[in-house]
């Protein structure tokens, strides 16, 4: 039977055309996916080449104009260490040499090397173009010596005993690298356990902080001036101090202001009478025991002071 020219296609013809379209779409999708991958790889390579080329070019420009430019070689090093360290010592500690490029030196590494020295509190390094490096060193300011023992407590220490540290007002202590002449006249604190002498740590001993507070209050006292050169903390419940004139003063660890007021009042009385204190126990609040040097008479006297009494007796040295 013949089919008409305009008759609809058969079922088999429609199915074949559908399969052909599916195959064509699959090939087109593969080509597009391949093209996207290729474009992504090409763009990545292109931008990577640009970055690498830019980095290499920048490094060459920096090396040409800065890092290898002799104009920026270090010719001058200005060191301000408060006259404690010499320029040669600082250069040796940092490993810095004349002629090094000013941009090549690692300032942070140099700073850490200098801060490793206990006597240095802070370090500031500055580049001053084109050829100068500034090193500003702040040295710790001690207020006392921290020692395990004192061979001769009647004198200032002529030399530094073994195991001695310099002590700051904040309670930190360190091994001195350079001992300045003014350090030898600092007061001495003794009586602390050797196990606590760990450089750089805050002292946890309450008695030591009491001693530092006493030294701080003494330093601001005037009329008359109080001078202490040795503080013994070995008893644990009081501070036994040695004054400038070899007088022994016993302090309680509390109410330093009141005790110093009594001490200054007693010193004024002694100035008027011409006596010298041999020992005084300020631990006692009333009837404070006082002994004097160089007097033969042993007649006690009493002095009214702040509601309490000072009891005195003389003694031959």
Can you describe what's shown?
The protein is of the alpha/beta class. The chain has three domains: 18-65; 70-139, Ubiquitin-like (UB roll) (Roll), CATH 3.10.20.310; 144-314, Rossmann fold, CATH 3.40.50. Helices cover 33% and strands 23% of the residues. The protein has helices spanning 11-67, 87-94, 107-115, 206-219, 256-273, and strands spanning 76-80, 120-128, 132-139, 144-146, 165-167, 173-174, 188-190, 228-232, 238-243, 248-252, 276-281, 288-293, 302-305, 308-314. An eleven-stranded mixed β-sheet has the order 6-5-4-7-8-9-10-11-12-14-13, covered by helices on one side. The longest helix has 57 residues, at 11-67. It is elongated, with a radius of gyration of 42 Å. Mean pLDDT is 79; it is low at 1-6 and 296-311.
List its salient traits.
317 residues, alpha/beta, Ubiquitin-like (UB roll), Rossmann fold, 3 domains, three-stranded mixed beta sheet, 33% helix
Write the CATH architecture name of the largest domain: 3-Layer(aba) Sandwich
Order of helices and strands: HEHHEEEEEEHEEEHEEEE
Q: And the CATH topology of the largest domain? A: Rossmann fold
Tell me the name of the CATH homologous superfamily of the largest domain.
Cell division protein FtsQ/DivIB
Structural class by secondary-structure content: alpha/beta
The biggest beta sheet is recorded as: 11 strands, mixed
> From the alpha-carbon coordinates, what is the Rg to the nearest angstrom?
42 Å
Low-confidence stretches: 1-6, 296-311
Helix fraction, binned, reads: 25-40%
Give me the number of helical elements: 5
Q: Identify the overall geometry.
A: elongated
Could you report the average pLDDT, rounded to the nearest whole number? 79
Q: What percentage of amino acids are in beta strands?
A: 15-25%
CATH class of the largest domain: Alpha Beta
Distance between the termini: 154 Å
């Amino acid at each position: 039977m013949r089919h008409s020219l305009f008759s609809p296609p058969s079922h088999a013809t429609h199915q074949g055309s559908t399969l052909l379209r599916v195959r064509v779409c699959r090939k087109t999708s593969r080509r597009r996916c391949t093209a996207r991958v290729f474009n992504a790889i090409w763009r990545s390579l292109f931008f990577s080449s640009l970055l690498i080329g830019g980095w290499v070019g920048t490094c060459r420009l920096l090396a040409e104009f800065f890092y290898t430019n002799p104009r920026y070689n270090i010719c001058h090093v200005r060191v301000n260490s408060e006259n404690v360290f010499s320029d040669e010592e600082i250069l040796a500690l940092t490993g810095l040499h004349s002629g090094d490029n000013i941009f090549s030196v690692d300032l942070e590494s140099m700073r850490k090397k200098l801060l490793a020295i206990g006597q240095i509190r802070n370090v500031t390094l500055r580049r001053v173009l084109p050829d100068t490096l500034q090193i500003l060193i702040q040295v710790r300011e001690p207020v006392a010596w921290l020692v395990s023992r004192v061979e001769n407590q009647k004198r200032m220490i002529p030399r530094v005993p073994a195991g001695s540290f310099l002590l700051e007002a904040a309670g930190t202590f360190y091994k001195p690298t350079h001992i300045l002449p003014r350090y030898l006249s600092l007061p001495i604190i003794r009586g602390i356990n050797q196990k606590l002498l760990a450089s750089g740590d805050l002292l946890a001993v309450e008695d030591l902080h009491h001693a530092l507070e006493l030294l701080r209050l003494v330093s601001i006292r005037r009329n008359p001036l109080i001078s202490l050169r040795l503080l013994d903390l070995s008893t644990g419940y009081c501070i036994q101090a040695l004054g400038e004139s070899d007088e022994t003063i016993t302090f309680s660890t509390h109410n330093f202001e009141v005790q110093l007021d009594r001490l200054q009042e007693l010193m004024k009385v002694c100035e008027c009478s011409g006596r010298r204190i041999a020992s005084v126990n300020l631990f006692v609040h009333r009837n404070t025991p006082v002994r004097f040097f160089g007097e033969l008479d042993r007649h006690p006297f009493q002095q009214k002071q702040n509601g309490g009494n000072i009891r005195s007796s003389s003694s031959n040295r």
